[in-house]
Amino acid sequence: MWNSPLARRAGCVAILLFALCTASEFASVASAQTDRGLELYRRKFTEQRDAFRRQLEDYAAQLEASGHDDGVRAIRELLAPADNPNELQVLPNPPRVMQAEIPAGLPEAERAWRLRLRFLRQQQAVALYDLSRTAMQSDHASLAYELLHEVIHLDSDHAAARRLLGYVTWEGEWLTPFEKTKRQKKELWDDRFGWIPESELPRYEQGQRKFRNRWIDAAQEAQFRRAFDNAWEIRTEHFLVKTNHSLERGAEVARKLEEFHQFILRAFPGLFNSREQMRKLYSATATQATLAKNAMTVHVYRDRNEYVSTLQSRIPIIARTNGLYLQKDRVSYFFHDDQNDDSTLYHEATHQILFEGRAGRRDIAQAKHFWVVEGLACYMESFRIDDGRVSLGDPWFIRFDNARSRLILDKYYRPLDLFSSWGATAFQQQPELPLNYSQASGLTHFFLHAEQGKYRDAFIEHVAGIYTSRANDDGDVPTLDRLTGRGYGELDKDYVLYIQRQARELANQPIPDYIRRELDAPSRGRE
User: Fold this and answer.
1) CA dihedral 413, 415, 418, 424 (to 10 degrees)
2) In this structure, is the dihedral angle defined by the CA atoms of residues 137, 141, 145 and 151, taken in order, positive or negative?
3) Is the Cβ–Cβ distance between 423 and 367 less than 8 Å?
4) Are residues 194 and 256 in contact, defined by beta-carbon separation less than 8 angstroms?
5) Can you tell me the distance from the alpha carbon of 443 to that of 495, in angstroms, rounded to the nearest whole number?
C-alpha cells in the first residue's frame, strides 16, 4: 500500500481519524500552559498590524473614490498576506538604494497621497521598533527580530533597524561592511562570475577570462580548471567556494550560501549572541554580530564520480552521501548535480555555519543531545526563496511528512529523555536510524513553531549551548526541560498533540505542486 511516497503521503491523511484514535497509546491530553509574556507581545503585534491594515484599507478606499489608482495599487502591494504559523517567513529583501525625496514637481494630488502613505508607513515602523525593543528587553529575541524585519519592510531607511541587521550606508545605498569594501574597490557582484572588477566585466561578457594575470579564452580556461588544484575560487563575505565544474556554477552556489547564511543570522540571532549581547545590540553604538572571520570553505566537484573517488579513501561510506561537512577539515564537500536539489547544500551548510561560528576546535554533542544537531540541519533543508520571500519549515516538506508518518502510521516514537541522552556515536549506531532522523526533524519543527513559537527561544538557546559547550559530557548544556519549564514527559505529550493537529489541518489541504514534483523526481538516496 505504501510503495510510493505519494501514496504514503496521501494514505497518512486518508486514515487520519483512525490513526488519531490509536495515538492515545503515546500520550494523554497535555495540560495547557502558555508563555504569558510572549502571548502578550504577540497580541500587541497583531493588534498594531491589524489596526494599520484597517487604516490602509480606509485610505485605499478614499484614493479609489478619487480615482488615484496608482495609490490603491501601492497600498494593495503593501498589504501582504498573513503569515503561515507552520512556516518561518521573512519578508522580501529590502531595497539597497535609499529612498529618494518625493519630487516637488509631481501633480499636487499625487504628491499628497505619496507623502501620506510614506508617513503612515514610517509611523507604523516607529511603533513596531519600539515594540521590538521592549520584546527584546523581556528576552523574546525571536519576536524582536521578526518585528525588525517588519520595520524595514515598512521603512527601508529606518536607521536603527538597519544597523541592528548589519547594514551601513555608502553613496546612497544600504550595504554590509564587506559589500561596502568591495564597492570602494570598484568591484561589483555578478551572478555569473561572482565579485569582479567593474572594468573587467565587459571582457568576461565577451567570453574572455583572467587566468594567472593574463587574458585567455573561456574554453581554454575551462580546460585548465578541470584539475581541482586549479579550481575556480569564488569568494563572498562568508564563503570561499572552489569548483572545477564552472565559474557560473561556483557563483550560483556561493550566492545561495550567502542568502542562506544571511537568513540564519537574522532569523536566529540567539544562535550567535547571548541574550545579554542581543539586548546590548539595541544600544546606540552596538552593531550586529558577524560570524567566522575567515571564509568558510566549500568544495564542489565536477560530478559524483570525482566526489566519490576523491574522498573514498578517507570516508568509506562517501558513495551513500550527497554532501558532507567535515569538522576536522572545516570544509563542506559537494558535487554538481543536474537535478540541482539544494536541500543537501543547506543541510551541510547548517553544520558548517554553526560549528565555524565559534572559535576553537571541539567535539559537538558527543555525549548527549545529538538529535538536535541533525534535527536542525534536516529542518533547514526546507529553506526556499519564492519571489523574494524566504520561507522555512513548510509542513509539507518531505522531512516533516516523514515525521508525521513515523508517529501516526508506524507508531514509532522514542521518548525525549532517551532521545536526548544519545551522543553522536550512540545516535548513529541505532538500528532505527532513518526513523530517528524523521523524529528529529519533527521535534525541531515542534520546538520552533508550536503555539506561535512558544518554545523557539528556548530551543535556540539549547542549540547555542550545544555548540558552545566544551565539556566532554555536555553537562554544561542547558537542557530543554529546564529552558521550557516543561518536563520531558510533558514535552512528549505536547509533541504528539502538535503532530495530530498538524495532520488534521493538512488533511483538508491539497498537496502543493512543488511537493508533487519532488515526489515524481528520482530518489536521491536521502532518508
Assistant:
1) 50
2) negative
3) yes
4) no
5) 7
Residue 240 makes CB contacts below 8 A (sequence gap 6+) with 233, 234, 295, 296, 297, 298
* Three-class DSSP category at 378: helix
In angstroms, the CA 352 to CA 330 distance is: 7
Closest CA to 459 of 430, 435, 491: 491
Integer CA distances (angstroms), 425 to 103, 114, 295, 367, 497, in order: 65, 61, 29, 8, 30
Rounded distance between C-alpha atoms, residue 79 and residue 233, angstroms: 42
Any idea what DSSP says for residue 97? B
Q: In 3-state terms, what secondary structure has residue 58?
A: helix
- Please state at what angle helix 247-267 crosses helix 343-356, rounded to 10 degrees: 60
The C-alpha atoms of residue 440 and residue 414 are separated, in whole angstroms, by: 10
Parallel, antiparallel, or unpaired for β 331-335 and 296-301? parallel
Which grid cell is 473?
Answer: 559530557
Output b/e per residue, 73-87; b: 16+ Cβ within 10 A.
ebbeebeeeeeeebb
For residue 438, which of 459, 463, 457, 419 has the smallest C-alpha distance?
A: 419
8 A C-beta contact, residue 159 and residue 167? no
Question: What is the spatial distance between Cα 432 and Cα 453, in angstroms, rounded to a whole number?
Answer: 29
H-helix or E-strand spanning residue 214: strand 214-217
Dmax over CA atoms of the chain, in Å, equals 74
Q: Which residues contact 235 (CB under 8 A, 6 or more apart)?
A: 194, 195, 241, 254, 295
* Alpha-carbon gap, residue 216 to 305, rounded angstroms: 29
Q: 3-state class of 274 per DSSP? A: coil
**What pLDDT tens digit does each residue of the chain (527 aa) get?**
333 444 444 444 434 433 444 443 443 333 333 356 888 998 999 999 999 999 999 999 999 999 999 999 999 988 866 556 667 766 677 899 999 999 999 999 999 999 999 999 999 999 999 999 999 988 888 889 889 989 999 999 999 999 988 899 999 999 999 999 999 999 999 999 999 999 999 999 999 999 999 999 999 999 999 999 999 999 999 999 999 999 999 999 999 999 999 888 888 888 887 778 778 778 765 555 444 468 999 999 999 999 999 999 999 999 999 999 999 999 999 999 987 689 999 999 999 999 998 766 578 899 999 999 999 999 999 999 877 778 899 999 999 999 999 999 999 999 999 999 999 999 999 999 999 999 999 999 999 999 988 999 999 999 999 998 766 566 789 999 999 999 999 999 999 999 999 999 999 888 877 777 666 655 443 44
**Cell numbers for 267:** 532569523
Residue 88, strand partner residues: 392
Residue type at position 111: R
In the chain the first and final C-alpha atoms are separated, in Å, by: 19
